[in-house]
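User: For my dataset I need records formatted as: sequence, then structure tokens, nothing else. Please produce one.
Assistant:
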Amino acid sequence: MNVKLIVVSVVIIGVLVGGLSYYQLSHVTPSLIVLSQQDISTVMPGWKVAGVLVANYTPFFSSLYPNATQVAQEEFIKGNATLYLYVIEYNATPTNKPGYSEYGHFLIHANVTGNTSYVNLNNVISEEINAIKTGSGLKPEISNFMLSSNDNVNVLEYGNLTSKDINLYIEVVKDNQSITYISIENASNYSEIYSSIYSSVKQYAVNGTLNGYNYFNLTITSLQGQSFYIVGEKPTWVVILEFYGPPQFQLFSTIMERI
């Protein structure tokens, strides 16, 4: 049975992350500045802001960016190509890295993948430096329906990713009992998404309703240990919480009431 549950876990996690990676972190605050749509259009016409992820450093980050305090990864798309902008913040002047540009307490890096003509990444980096100088760029913020310190949790990571069909909001929070991974999807085909997830795990799921919305929960045992999931739906929304530690149902119900 554990083999099946591992497969189910991978299916759910794949739906959660939607192409972005989660990192294990300590604490993050909204202070970084990245490029707005106007900024990127100025230097890279035709490119669109797809999303931004903000995170604190961990053992993973500290090996790449010793003494960094926060990292922002911004994503831009044009056709089949994706451009990534990394902004790494330090409390003091950072040690420069090959391929990175240094400005004040920041290291900045950009790369591009996919099918595209030549891209002058130096223009992107220069525009980011200008945004930091002037404070006129995009300041990533935690959406008002997501959890914050007012909900007695530490926000470890937050971000959003927008595609043609889905707006995805992700968050990682920690309280004194659990670390919780949160995925909030806003999509016209929300019911199809919810049904697809449920059909993959229905033999292990326990169904429930609360204040007019449907949800189910399940426990998954894998080689990494045990985790607990709650998945709910509301018109145009699918909410997924994954708990490492005792499940905190009130976190789920708080989000469901806000959306």
